[in-house]
């Protein structure tokens, strides 16, 4: 039983390390947003997930294309939800996620972790 649990733990750690990519968020970019509410100051401002997995969201791609927080970027509606990036930033909304209304993280990390736990439990039961 202990050996099975050890195998399952090693398997789970390997799975997590393969699924999670390092974050590409850079603190120097966040300096451009210092006048905005704290709710938007997170990796998911520009990335699909807080882990950096999934790449840039629509706002992150537009930010990169503009080379920074420009007036044009503030007037754009990167996520297509009908609100300009500037309006969303000022209200504490993430402009790269049309479903986000209060700055909550994307559920990606939780889903990945849940999948790893389920696979680990299945592995232990099979052993
Ligand atoms: Ca928008």
TrEMBL record:
Keywords: Membrane, Transmembrane, Transmembrane helix. The chain crosses the membrane at residues 106-124. Residues 44-90 form the Temptin Cys/Cys disulfide domain. Residues 77-101 are annotated as: Disordered. This is Temptin Cys/Cys disulfide domain-containing protein.
């Amino acid at each position: 039983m202990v050996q099975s649990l050890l195998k399952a733990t090693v398997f789970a750690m390997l799975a997590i390390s393969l699924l999670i990519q390092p974050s590409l968020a850079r603190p120097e970019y966040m300096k451009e947003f210092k006048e905005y509410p704290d709710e938007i100051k997170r990796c998911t401002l520009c990335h699909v997930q807080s882990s950096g997995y999934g790449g840039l969201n629509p706002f992150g791609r537009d930010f990169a294309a503009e080379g920074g927080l420009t007036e044009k970027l503030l007037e754009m509606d990167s996520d297509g939800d009908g609100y300009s990036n500037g309006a969303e930033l000022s209200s504490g909304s993430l402009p790269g996620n049309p479903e986000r209304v209060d700055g909550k993280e994307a559920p990606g990390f939780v889903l990945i972790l849940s999948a790893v736990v389920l696979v680990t439990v299945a592995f232990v039961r099979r052993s």
